[in-house]
Backbone:
């Protein structure tokens, strides 16, 4: 009779279940009989990563040639693909901006993913107050976050047109 000891090394990665397959060779001075081998399953003991969000700028201007990126970053590298769905809301109309996707996907082994917002070619002639473009974060897959909304400010590029000034004398 004999035994082997296998020690696993704990890491901080949120990863899939792993396995070790042990195959038996030809023993010296012994007979193994009808044993094919063994498989050991290693279960992960780590929590899913936490996602944090950051905009490359807090503002975007109408008809800008420069996009603003929303980056989602994991707290630790994951062995699972992370998907972050969202819907759009806010005071800005959906015809005033374009979003590159309605979800951010962070591939296995990566720390972050990006979605971009563009206003290039999307211009109106209305003088408007500061408007909002809101990312309403949905249910994340293989991660979690306390953040439920991210807000980007949309700035009008239209100036008011001054037609006349009326002044009355002071007495």
Residues:
């Amino acid at each position: 009779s004999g035994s082997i000891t296998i020690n696993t090394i704990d890491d901080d990665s949120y990863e899939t279940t792993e396995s070790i397959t042990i195959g038996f060779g030809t023993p010296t001075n012994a007979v193994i009989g009808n044993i094919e081998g063994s498989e050991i399953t290693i279960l992960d003991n780590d929590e899913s990563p936490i996602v944090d969000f950051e905009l490359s700028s807090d503002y975007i201007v109408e008809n800008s040639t420069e996009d603003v990126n929303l980056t989602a970053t994991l707290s630790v590298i994951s062995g699972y693909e992370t998907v972050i769905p969202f819907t759009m809301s806010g005071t800005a109309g959906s015809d005033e901006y374009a979003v590159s996707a309605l979800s951010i996907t962070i591939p296995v082994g990566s720390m972050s993913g990006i979605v971009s917002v563009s206003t290039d070619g999307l211009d109106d002639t209305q003088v408007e107050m500061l408007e909002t473009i809101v990312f309403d974060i949905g249910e994340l897959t293989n991660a979690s976050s306390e953040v439920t909304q991210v807000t980007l400010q949309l700035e009008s590029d239209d100036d008011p047109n001054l037609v006349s000034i009326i002044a009355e004398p002071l007495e």
Observations:
- The mean pLDDT is 88.
